[in-house]
Design a protein that fits this description.
Blueprint: E1 18-23, H1 28-41, E2 47-54, H2 61-68, H3 79-86, E3 90-95, H4 104-120, E4 125-128, E5 133-135, H5 137-153, H6 156-167, E6 169-173, E7 177-181, E8 190-194, H7 200-217, H8 219-226, E9 229-231, E10 248-251
Parallel strand pairs: 8-10
Antiparallel strand pairs: 1-3, 1-4, 2-3, 4-5, 6-7, 7-8, 9-10
């Protein structure tokens, strides 16, 4: 299994997962215990956050999930998922370990399996805070199965794809480009595609293809084949969880 590092940047700011789980009334202890068990079993380096977790509802969650729902995958969430967010009674946060390009793929699979474990233990909703993306319970299950199949096949590219689809947000519109956020969680630079390229769904497909190519073939091959450019820059401050230390790949034309 070969691993292509997407950039040669000096990684002084290390990405990490922040996961948010919603539960029912009095569920905080149950979900916290389930998270601790998962951390002992397979999610090495993750930790339950006691500072911000709470055994009461958080009025900001409806708006937060509303912004974060994935809008690319068909049926990524349902009315039942929205109702679960609206009616939640507890909130649990779990923090991932600082990641390097070498372990980012495994950390993201660990985060995905952690989400699955907590859903099976009663979590009614989950989102990745580091890029601001949420899926419904059924879609989380699909992503987990994809990650498990990739692990079983020892397919590094498929592992990174599952982690990327689970925890990265796209497409996000800015003035000139349509952007991704969260590719750093699998050790890759963000992909910004010129708005003139096509519709949002067409742009999202290009982003996903470019992400696969970066994982499989490396940065230089993608820059050459797509006549793209790379910059060690970010749209976010270095103390923001969305900050990508691997930079941005800009795709300006088909």
């Amino acid at each position: 299994m070969s691993v292509h590092h997407a950039g040669a940047a000096d990684i002084t700011v290390k990405p990490r997962h922040v996961l948010c789980f919603l539960g029912g009334q009095g569920d905080l202890t149950r979900l916290s215990d389930a998270a601790s068990h998962a951390i002992q079993q397979f999610a090495t380096g993750f930790s339950v956050d006691t500072a911000y977790s709470q055994d009461e509802p958080d009025s900001r969650m409806i708006a937060s999930f509303g912004v974060c729902w994935d809008r690319v995958a068909p049926n990524a969430w349902t009315q039942a998922d929205e109702a679960a967010v609206a009616n939640h009674q507890s909130v649990l946060y779990v923090l991932g370990p600082p990641q390097s390009p070498d372990n980012a793929g495994m950390c993201s699979i660990g985060a995905l399996f952690l989400v699955d474990a907590l859903i099976k233990s009663g979590a009614v909703a989950a989102k990745g805070e580091s890029a601001g993306v949420a899926h419904g319970l059924s879609r989380w299950g699909e992503l987990t199965r994809a990650g498990a199949a990739a692990m079983q096949a020892d397919d590094h590219g498929a592992m990174l794809r599952a982690g990327r689809l689970a925890f990265a947000k796209r497409p996000l519109a800015s003035d000139v480009y349509t952007e991704t956020v969260g590719f750093h969680l699998v050790g890759l630079p963000e992909v910004y595609v010129a708005k003139a390229y096509g519709s949002e769904r067409e742009v999202a497909a290009v982003m996903d293809q470019a992400g696969d190519e970066l994982a499989e073939r490396g940065l230089q091959a993608v820059l050459k084949d797509r006549k793209a450019r790379h910059a060690n820059t970010s749209s976010y401050r270095s103390d923001d969880f969305k900050y990508n230390p691997y930079g941005i790949v800009y795709i300006d034309r088909p």
